[in-house]
Specification:
Blueprint: H1 12-35, E1 64-67, E2 84-86, H2 88-117, H3 140-150, H4 152-172, E3 178-190, E4 196-210, H5 218-286, H6 291-326, H7 331-339
Antiparallel strand pairs: 1-2, 3-4
């Protein structure tokens, strides 16, 4: 009779054997590392650091540090302000560049003025601060009518039209008979074949009558040419000149009026910019603003003063432009403008 067979399913024994083998192996190598002599070794410096450690941050152009909004150990995110640079030096360089450019433009303007006047132009006199601007008198229609009647260039075109019209009548005269009274007086002492002869005097008085019958159409062609000159050239040039003169007159009047308003606005801007600069200077002394803020206020004041001077210049030039366009420019007008300038050495 067969006996039952018992099969063991536990893994305790294989695990015990594996642990014993590992202990024996590490024990032998550990004991060897303690007692074995070390003949040579390589020493290498190293540093252990964690990810996200301190990193160097550099500006692309560099500059002077004005403020550090963060401190060592602060946690920052993308887009946070780390360093605020002082752009005082950059602004100073920009101002120097603008000054060089302005000096060059002034020199070129003097050369253009010298070419126009034919004399060398040195330093220009600035405007006085105590003169009174002339008012803009009358309406734009008044100045336009005055320019139509008195503009020198337009009047010359009127004369050219009249001359072209008279030229038509002159060419038409080629169809009419002409009567000429002829008188001649001749004294001679030369005879036949250039021989010497007694001196003699010959007088002739007569009437020449010329009646044109046919000249091949040349007279009619000249009449048509005169008509073309009158209508196409003289009249069109007169009309183009009239339009241009009236356009310049209207522009001068409108620019003069707007310049007057810009002067008032620029005066207010200068006052406010000056007060802002004074306030910024006091705040800087108290340490509440930076140097850049003071420079920005100074730049705003300088810009306002420049705009004010430009407004004065534009008003004077536009007011003066009305005079020649309307044909009433006189020496007294130029003397009046000259009195607004500051004399040399004053």
């Amino acid at each position: 009779m067969d006996q039952p067979v018992t099969v063991e399913t536990s893994d305790r024994r294989p695990r015990f054997i594996g642990v014993v083998i590992v202990i024996i192996t590490f024990g032998i190598f550990g004991l060897w590392s303690l007692v074995a002599p070390l003949q040579s070794a390589a020493l290498v410096p190293g540093k252990v650091m964690v990810k996200g450690s301190r990193k160097n941050v550099e500006h692309l152009k560099g500059g002077i540090v004005a403020e550090l909004p963060v401190r060592d150990g602060d946690l920052v995110a993308a887009g946070d302000l780390l360093v605020l640079l002082d752009d005082t030096q950059a602004r100073a360089d920009k101002v120097l560049t603008d000054e060089i450019e302005a000096e060059n433009e002034a020199a070129l303007a003097r050369e253009s003025l010298s070419e126009l006047t034919g004399t060398y132009v040195g330093d220009l006199a600035p405007l006085r601060t105590d003169f009174e601007l002339p008012p803009l008198e009358n309406t734009m229609d008044y100045w336009v009518k005055l320019a139509t009647e008195s503009n020198a260039l337009l009047r010359s075109k009127h004369e050219a039209v009249a001359a072209a019209k008279d030229g038509i009548q002159e060419q038409k005269g080629g169809h009419y008979p002409t009567v000429d009274l002829v008188y001649s007086n001749q004294t001679s002492d030369v005879g036949y074949d250039n021989q010497q002869s007694p001196e003699r005097q010959t007088e002739y008085i007569g009437v020449d009558i010329n009646i044109p019958l046919y000249s091949g159409g040349s007279t009619s062609a000249r009449v048509r040419e005169a008509w073309a000159t009158y209508y196409i050239i003289a009249r069109e040039e007169e009309e183009a000149t009239r339009r241009e003169v009236l356009k310049r007159t209207r522009e001068a009047w409108l620019n003069t009026r707007s310049s007057r308003k810009r002067i008032h606005a620029a005066q207010l801007s200068v006052r406010s910019a000056t007060k802002s600069f004074e306030a910024m200077s006091k705040s800087f002394n108290y340490g509440t603003v930076t140097t850049a803020d003071v420079l920005e206020a100074l730049h705003a004041r300088t810009r306002s003063e420049r705009d004010y001077q430009n407004a004065l210049y534009q008003y004077i030039t536009n007011w003066l432009a009305l005079k020649p366009e309307s044909g009433i420019l006189e020496d007294s007008d130029l003397q009046q403008v000259n009195s607004w300038l500051l004399a040399q050495g004053s």
